[in-house]
From TrEMBL:
Name this protein carries in UniProt: RNA helicase
Gene3D superfamilies assigned: P-loop containing nucleotide triphosphate hydrolases (3.40.50.300)
One Gene Ontology molecular-function label: hydrolase activity
A Gene Ontology BP annotation from the UniProt entry: regulation of translation
Region annotated Disordered, chain positions: 1-33, 414-472
Catalytic reaction annotation: ATP + H2O = ADP + phosphate + H(+)
Domain Helicase ATP-binding residues, every copy: 71-241
InterPro entries noted in UniProt: DEAD/DEAH_box_helicase_dom, Helicase_ATP-bd, Helicase_C-like, P-loop_NTPase, RNA-helicase_DEAD-box_CS, RNA_helicase_DEAD_Q_motif
Protein family per UniProt: Belongs to the DEAD box helicase family. DDX6/DHH1 subfamily.
Organism: Furculomyces boomerangus
Upper taxonomic lineage: Eukaryota, Fungi, Fungi incertae sedis, Zoopagomycota, Kickxellomycotina
Segments of skewed composition (Polar residues): 7-21
Span(s) of short sequence motif Q motif: 40-68
Length: 472
């Protein structure tokens, strides 16, 4: 009789799985950052079937290391301090237990997820909605730069999970629009940034709106001393997870090229012609340089979007949405998009301007090689950047190689089938050669030549403003 029951249960489980609308299987190679697991399955955590359906339909097959460590502990209600690399599944590691614990029969806000940027808030809320789509859970995103009245109207309806940036959430809490008295889960993604001097006072005020019996979950790739201070003050015997045996992603190969400042655009043009780029993100150190470089790239004949903090929020949202959906191959941006942004198609990151510190460098190159896939990070280094290059290598314990004349095609996401898991592509360590790029790029694009509406997002390959081509 027990055998019949077991067989019937197995058949029922297979029935609901067969009815799922699964995405195409991702056959790309994955590194140990996500494959070095204990062999657990999502079913091992006794999650609600509706949640499992959303997990599998979102493309997840088995939990990654950070998910294996985090999900079962978070489900018990214990505080967690988790450190794991960018792009290894941290977001799902806290969203899955958060969704599991929501009581859909209650109209109250039950969970707050804080992130440092508006783009990351939009992305995180979308992950919540995607994984929880069968659960009848209401998720709201609220950030600065959007209409406060719209948020107030939205909160007149039932909301279970709020995803937002600290300032806007505090504003709504101070106005008594959000009631956190029944919210028992307080989550911070990119916690190192959220606990910087810029945000810490806001975070501490927000905690005052939560009940004393609450669960605090912190996730980040780096944990400076301010995190320890917060842990000692606001967390109760947190379970600490540290999966950072090394700081950089195993799948990201890092190169540098020595160039003079005036040679950078020409060097970038050469990279575009030589690399197999699915999508690329190109970082500059200032908003003005972002706009100038975007214009120069279109003059070279390549389509290009751009994004930075001085743009209007709805323009930033449109650029992020369209780039994520593959409308354009190249995105030039400031450090606005260094945190948590997950665009699986990005396989090349180029630091047109070398970052000023190791933390920024780590987050920038983490935009490629997402979820264990292969990626390339290329740094354009001037004479002034040499010491900084050495310093960042030492701080991160990583090796940034001189760029070879030919980059191994197996490192590119488009040629993943030739990559052997047991024999990764070799780092091609060639002698430095400063004479490879001797020609100057095209004439500079001067500030007084900008179109009045240029800050709306980018250019197409004809040099037309992005906002014009999208009807903005």
């Amino acid at each position: 009789m027990s055998e019949v029951k077991t067989k019937s249960s197995s058949n029922n489980q297979q029935d609901w799985k067969n009815q799922l609308s699964l995405p195409a299987k991702d056959t790309r190679v994955q590194t140990e950052d996500v494959t070095a697991t204990k062999g657990n399955e999502f079913e091992d955590y006794y999650l609600k079937r509706e949640l499992l359906m959303g997990i599998f339909e979102a493309g997840f097959e088995k939990p990654s290391p950070i998910q294996e460590e985090s999900i079962p502990i978070a489900l018990t209600g214990r505080d967690i301090l988790a450190r794991a690399k960018n792009g290894t599944g941290k977001t799902a590691a806290f969203i899955i237990p958060a969704l599991e614990k929501i009581n859909t029969g209650s109209p109250d806000v039950q969970c707050l997820i804080l992130v440092p940027t508006r783009e990351l808030a939009l992305q995180t809320s979308q992950v919540c909605k995607t994984i929880g789509k069968h659960m009848n859970i209401n998720v709201m995103v609220t950030t600065g730069g959007t209409n406060l009245k719209d948020d107030i109207m939205r909160l007149s309806e039932n909301v279970h999970i709020i995803v937002g940036t600290p300032g806007r959430v505090l504003d709504l809490a101070n106005k008594n629009v959000i009631n956190f008295s029944k919210a028992e889960t307080f989550i911070m993604d990119e916690a190192d940034k959220l606990l910087s001097p810029e945000f810490t006072p806001v975070i501490e005020q927000l905690l005052g709106f939560f009940p004393k019996k609450r669960q605090v979950l912190l996730y980040s790739a780096t944990f400076p001393l301010v995190v320890k201070s917060f842990k000692d003050k606001h967390m109760v015997k947190p379970y600490e997870i540290n999966l950072m045996d090394e700081l950089t992603l195993k799948g990201v190969t890092q190169y540098y090229a020595y160039v003079e400042e005036k040679q950078k655009v020409h060097c970038l043009n050469t990279l575009f012609s030589k690399l197999q780029i699915n999508q690329s993100i190109i970082f500059c150190n200032s908003t003005n340089r972002v706009e100038l470089l975007a214009r120069k790239i279109t003059e070279l004949g390549y389509s290009c979007f751009y994004s930075h903090a001085r743009m209007l929020q709805h323009h930033r949202n449109r650029v992020f949405h369209d780039f994520r959906n593959g409308s354009c191959r190249n995105l030039v941006c400031s450090d606005l998009l260094t945190r948590g942004i997950d665009i699986q198609a990005v396989n090349v990151v180029i630091n047109f301007d070398f970052p000023r510190n190791a933390e920024t460098y780590l987050h920038r190159i983490g935009r490629s090689g997402r979820f264990g896939h292969l990626g390339i990070a290329i740094n354009l280094i001037t004479n002034e950047d040499r010491f900084n290059l050495y310093k960042i290598e030492q701080e991160l314990g990583t090796e940034i190689l001189p760029i070879p004349p030919v980059i191994d095609k197996r490192l590119n996401i488009n040629d993943h089938n030739s990559y052997n898991k047991n024999q990764p592509p070799p780092g091609l360590n060639r002698p430095r050669n400063q004479n490879n790029n001797t020609n100057e790029g095209p004439p500079g694009y001067h500030g007084n030549q900008r179109r009045n509406n240029q800050r709306q997002g980018g250019y197409n390959q004809n040099g037309e403003n992005y906002s014009q081509q999208t009807g903005k």
